[in-house]
Design a protein that fits this description.
Layout (H helix, E strand, L loop, with lengths): L5 E2 L3 H6 L3 E5 L2 E6 L3 H10 L1 E5 L4 E6 L3 H8 L11 E8 L5 E11 L2 E6 L4 H10 L6 E4 L4 E7 L3 H9 L1 H4 L6 E6 L2 E6 L8 E7 L3 H12 L4 E3 L2 H10 L34 H10 L3 E8 L10 E4 L2 E12 L4 E9 H6 L3 E5 L2 E8 L12
Parallel strand pairs: 1-3, 4-14
Antiparallel strand pairs: 2-3, 4-10, 5-8, 5-9, 6-7, 7-8, 10-13, 11-12, 12-13, 15-18, 15-20, 16-17, 16-19, 17-18, 19-20
């Protein structure tokens, strides 16, 4: 059998740092270096450095690029200035979510879509299905690496490496820079709920950039962080994860991200279906919940109301900041709207929980 497992350019660096390596979709990735909780807390209080080179990058360019991207996404790029980005789902004709992506606009004829690693091939197939003659589509995933510096001290660290040209960026802005002969794209984006930056760099220069960031940030508290902390941080921030909260069988409206669907823009692939759902209402809805007692919810734990199972947890974890269990799950819309009493069934025992709003943790909220 052919081994299709991939490694990022930083695999050896992760091993040298003592990382616990796990299979994540088709990649060998660091789960943690020290502990998930310590890495999580360091991002909240200082800064963490993440290797997220498993993400996919798809370049869309040509005279028809803007019209094409508008057709395949639900959000609206028409108001973006050059070198701005936005978050958006890509949906099929039935409103099911094929992926959630970040679209980077270089100009009206050049966009980059950053997609989830587990869906890159499927995204490409879907996008090419609707490709127009005046649009080019190129997969850059095997050529680019992506690092993320996240946390309240990330601006200071980025300033030491790149200067004010990057620290002056607003949220969801990006810039092309050259440093130490490395050509990079630096964006003020991230997946942790903290301030942060993500840096695209060619594979051959990824290790050099990783080492440079760690060196410049060591006296400020920058430490490497793995996928474990990335997951607990995104959950505390109330961010959804493709394959858990959103997938082919869920729509943005059910998932509570209806704000990413711009019905007033020109026709897009899922517009008619999502319009009907928005008008007629939904039967189920994604809720966020916080445990009221001990017990840590996990994916697929049952959600219970009046002793009846009414849904399953899509993501659940122990919140290092709140020191209590938190999670997401789908329930009937009525129960979600009424914020009915619920419990989470963990090892055949029901633990009380309450339906809450997100984010669970706000930017700058520190762990004890």
């Amino acid at each position: 059998m052919v081994n299709n497992i991939k490694k990022t350019p930083l695999y050896d660096a992760h091993i040298e740092l003592g990382a616990k390596i796990v299979d994540y979709y088709s990649f060998k990735m660091p789960l943690q270096y020290d502990s998930i909780i310590s890495e999580h807390k360091n991002v909240r209080s200082s800064a963490g450095l993440f290797d997220i080179s498993h993400m996919g990058e798809i370049l869309v360019d040509g005279k028809g690029a803007t019209e094409f991207v508008q057709k395949i996404i639900t959000n609206d790029i028409s108001k973006l200035s050059d070198y701005q980005a936005l978050y958006t789902p890509i949906c099929d004709e039935e409103g099911g979510t094929i992926d959630d992506v970040i679209v980077y606009k270089y100009n009206s004829e050049r966009y980059m879509l950053v997609v989830n690693c587990g869906t890159t091939k499927r995204d490409l197939k879907w996008i090419n299905k609707y490709k127009t003659d005046d649009t080019n589509i190129n997969d850059l995933s095997n050529k680019l690496s992506l690092l993320a510096v996240q946390g309240p001290k990330s601006e200071e660290i980025i300033g030491l490496v790149f200067g004010e040209k990057c620290t002056s960026l607003s949220r969801f802005q990006f810039i092309d820079v050259t440093e130490n002969d490395m050509k990079m794209t630096v964006s003020r984006t991230g997946y942790t709920g903290e301030d942060g930056f993500e840096i695209f760099v060619g594979n051959s220069q990824c290790v050099e950039l990783w080492n440079l960031l760690l060196e410049k940030g060591k006296d400020i508290g920058l430490e490497p962080a793995g996928l474990g902390a990335r997951d607990t941080l995104r959950l505390e921030a109330g961010y959804l994860l493709f394959g858990n909260e959103i997938d082919d069988f869920t729509t943005p409206i059910e998932a509570g991200i209806g704000w990413t669907v711009k019905f007033d823009k020109k026709d897009f692939l899922s517009k008619d279906t999502l319009l009907r759902q928005n008008k007629n209402g939904i039967n189920r809805k994604l809720i966020a919940f916080k445990m009221l007692d001990k017990g840590i919810p996990r994916t697929d734990s049952e959600i219970v109301h009046n002793n009846n199972v009414i849904g399953k947890v899509t993501s659940g974890t122990f919140s290092p900041t709140l020191e209590i269990g938190i999670g997401f799950g789908y329930v009937l819309n009525r129960i979600a709207e009424e914020k009915s009493e619920i419990s989470i069934r963990i090892r055949d025992k029901d633990f009380p929980a309450e339906i809450v709003s997100t984010p669970f943790v706000t930017q700058g909220e520190k762990c004890d």
